[in-house]
Write a structure and sequence with these properties.
Shape: globular
Strand content: over 45%
Number of strands: 8
Mean pLDDT: 97
CATH architecture: Sandwich
CATH superfamily: Jelly Rolls
Largest sheet: 8 strands, antiparallel
Low-confidence stretches: none
CATH topology: Jelly Rolls
Distance between the termini: 17 Å
Number of domains: 1
Helix content: under 10%
Length: 103
């Protein structure tokens, strides 16, 4: 159980920090509807993403890939990335170092 709040990040998308340490942070992103968007962005953090549930089309730089439950991948620092939800679900992201902007 986490004491961190659920924060809206877009239409039908929320994030919740699950755990954090200065060197690592775990965050759940919940997509409530098909078509919900995780906007294209980049950051200096290395990110790993695990698809807990749902189906998503990710843009990773110039590449696109569809991912579903059990899939995982790593996003290097400063790579532009984002996703579109194809079936509602949850992504669990880990960031190193911690995303202080999420606190």
């Amino acid at each position: 159980m986490t004491d961190f709040p659920v924060v809206p990040t877009g239409e039908n998308v929320t994030r919740q920090v699950l755990s954090d340490h200065p060197d690592l942070m775990v965050v759940a992103f919940r997509f409530a509807a098909e078509g919900a968007v995780g906007a294209l962005h980049d950051h200096h953090h290395v990110q790993s993403t695990y698809v807990e549930s749902g189906l998503f089309r990710f843009t990773l730089g110039d590449e696109q890939r569809e991912v579903g439950p059990g899939d995982s991948f790593v996003i290097p620092s400063n790579l532009t990335h984002g996703c579109v939800c194809l079936e509602p679900g949850t992504l669990v992201d880990c960031f190193t170092p911690r995303r202080d902007d999420f606190l």
